[in-house]
């Protein structure tokens, strides 16, 4: 089996496939191994959670180049801070919290990024269909949703994305955004209310 490398100390994070055993390890085993300096274990963390972090960042950061920088900075910070993780949340929530801080550091949020299948799944079921006419309507709806999301305040947009796209609980959203669960719920409520008003013609 080829070994896996994560050049995090050099400022670069790459994804490669390691041995089957470590790739299938549970979160606790991965954290223990990674905190002891096992880069193959950390590489599994990158492979397992990288796509979700990228999805999250691309809706909150102005352009794709910045998205890649934010995600890479997230994993570099996580590698360096592994010794501080005390298990007060899931590994995923901890990584999303670091990513949120990196997004704030990089605060260049100007517009939403291109929509993918996860955002399509968040639209009303009545709007999803395979026929050409409805597909065209879907495109218009998704464009309007993307534009409406781009105009939301950062925490409202982040709360909506984390809840509707990443299916996070409000306690985890709160930990990610460094707010209380009730505040996270409030941000999501206000975002949803605004989106419903902006997208009323599609309801």
Automatic annotation (TrEMBL):
Domain RNA polymerase sigma factor 70 region 4 type: 143-192
Pfam families listed in its UniProt record: Sigma70_r2 (PF04542), Sigma70_r4_2 (PF08281)
The RNA polymerase sigma-70 region domain, residue ranges: 46-110
GO process terms (BP): DNA-templated transcription initiation
Highest rank taxon of the organism: Bacteria
Keyword field: DNA-binding, Sigma factor, Transcription, Transcription regulation
Gene Ontology molecular function: DNA binding; sigma factor activity
Entry annotated with the keyword Signal: no
InterPro entries named in the record: RNA_pol_sigma-70-like, RNA_pol_sigma-70_dom, RNA_pol_sigma70_r2, RNA_pol_sigma70_r4_t2, RNA_pol_sigma_r2, RNA_pol_sigma_r3/r4-like, WH-like_DNA-bd_sf
Keyword Cell membrane annotated: no
Record family assignment: Belongs to the sigma-70 factor family. ECF subfamily.
NCBIfam families membership: sigma70-ECF (TIGR02937)
Annotated protein name in UniProt: Sigma-70 family RNA polymerase sigma factor
Species this protein is from: Mycolicibacterium hodleri
Organism lineage string: Bacteria, Bacillati, Actinomycetota, Actinomycetes, Mycobacteriales
